[in-house]
């Protein structure tokens, strides 16, 4: 019934084939309400997600997806609405714990962002959580831990597309006034909407003036962005530090 407390989140583990089609659905964390669980299962069976990539080829994999319902009248809609977020849960096919998902969800939370008059957000919004480490250290991590998505125009793009860690890293190693540099765009949420924030780092060998050119480049080149729906939240008990 409307007005009743929302049930705990449903956490599903989905088995995917090499095409990203859901072949099996396992309930890892039940809401305690059979109708809610079934609506989430039925919705998940219709999804087509991003399969794991190994050696440049898609392979069968598994992903864990949380679904937070609002009330029983909205159960089916909430499950269907979770599909776009779940579709981002590809990448290296890791299967994080519920606690790890909560940590990722918490990292996504940022202060409220004010909308422009037309309902958009500025294309360039500084990330309140800057990248940690130096240029060379971050580059090594990207090459060993992230997926290389593209190499175009002198820019190597690495991605992380777990459900609570959707980020792009553009590596400008040469050919630009501010090279070498790394620019990260990260999807975050203020609880009402999701949007992209940006952080950057120049190599120690890059002149200070070049880093200033990078900042200006980011501000000028970024187009206004349209807010996205926020990701599903973790189970209430987990948000309170309880299992």
From TrEMBL:
Pfam families: TonB_C. The keyword Membrane applies. Residues 219-243 are annotated as: Disordered. GO terms for biological process: transmembrane transport. Residues 1-78 form the TonB C-terminal domain. Its main location: membrane. Keywords: Membrane, Transmembrane, Transmembrane helix. It is found in: Membrane. GO terms for cellular component: membrane. It is a single-pass membrane protein. Residues 226-237 have a biased composition (Pro residues). This is TonB C-terminal domain-containing protein. It comes from Lysobacter enzymogenes.
């Amino acid at each position: 019934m409307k007005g009743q407390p929302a049930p705990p989140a449903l956490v599903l583990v989905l088995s995917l084939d090499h095409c990203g089609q859901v072949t099996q659905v396992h309930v890892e964390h039940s809401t305690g309400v059979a109708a809610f669980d079934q609506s989430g299962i039925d919705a998940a069976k219709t999804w087509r997600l991003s399969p794991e990539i190994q050696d440049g080829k898609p392979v069968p994999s598994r992903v864990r997806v949380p679904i937070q319902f609002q009330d029983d009248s909205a159960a089916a809609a909430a499950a269907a609405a979770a599909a776009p977020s779940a579709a981002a849960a590809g990448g290296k096919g890791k299967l994080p714990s519920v606690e790890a998902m909560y940590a990722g969800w918490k990292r996504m939370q940022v202060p409220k962002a004010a909308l422009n008059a037309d309902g958009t957000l500025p294309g360039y919004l500084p990330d309140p959580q800057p990248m940690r480490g130096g240029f060379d250290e971050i580059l090594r991590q990207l090459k060993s831990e992230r997926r290389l998505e593209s190499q175009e125009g002198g820019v190597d793009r690495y991605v992380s597309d777990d459900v609570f860690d959707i980020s792009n890293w553009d590596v400008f190693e040469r050919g630009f006034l501010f090279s070498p540099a790394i620019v990260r765009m990260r999807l975050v949420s203020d609880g009402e909407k999701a949007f992209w924030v940006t952080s950057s780092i120049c190599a120690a060998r890059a002149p200070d003036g070049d880093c200033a050119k990078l900042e200006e480049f980011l501000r000028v080149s970024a187009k206004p962005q349209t807010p996205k729906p926020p990701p599903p939240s973790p189970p209430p008990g987990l948000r309170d530090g309880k299992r």
